[in-house]
Write a structure and sequence with these properties.
homodimer; 122 residues; 4-stranded parallel beta sheet; 47% helix; 19% strand
């Protein structure tokens, strides 16, 4: 089983965390055939944490977990904190393949989305 | 003249601010015909600030400024801080049309980009 784990920063504003949970839920049906499950986790403040999110994925039978940083820039969180937490879990679950993708901000399509947003209002 | 102003949070990590500046620069040629100029500004920490970014756009001849929040969630910054700063500048420049677009996280295409990132690594 393959599991997609969307990882966001986490906010003191619960509505922002809820947005991330809804985004993860909205990805699930579109990811069918590629991922058996989609969930989210938070680096700080909100629950579940990244270790908790990976634990839950493994408990539900994931043999592969793809961690996707929902971040716009490569700050310390993306460069150090997320890899460190993932690496610790990889040691704990040596038979599960856990990978981290590039963060959202790095994706080529972001520029096109920005221009679409700008056009809609321009 | 129409000006697109990409507004990011601003980071203590200068490389993150530089990424935003490069993104704005990369948008400029693609925005041709729709926007005459593209620049960026930061809500906190980095320069230029939002007022400074709008000032510069108006000084360079913009009759319309489209402010695009480069944010993933609608926290206080997107809901209150950016509109407040824009509104103050709108009062200062009544002849310039200044608009704020929805923030990036709200754009429909983000889900597709996330799935593409996940697929590339899956």
């Amino acid at each position: 089983m393959r599991h997609l784990l969307l990882v966001a920063h986490g906010s003191r504003r619960e509505a922002s965390n809820e947005e991330v949970r809804q985004l993860a839920a909205s990805l699930a049906p579109r990811a069918q055939g590629r991922f058996d499950a989609v969930s989210c986790a938070f680096l700080e403040i909100a629950a579940p944490s990244i270790p908790e999110g990976i634990d839950a994925a493994v408990r539900s039978g994931a043999g592969e977990v793809v961690v996707l940083p929902y971040f716009l820039s490569a700050g310390r969180h993306v460069a150090e904190d997320i890899p460190r937490e993932v690496e610790a879990k990889q040691h704990e679950y040596p038979r599960v393949r856990i990978q981290v993708t590039p963060y959202l901000g790095l994706a080529g399509g972001v520029a096109e989305i920005l221009l679409s947003l700008a056009d809609a209002r321009g």
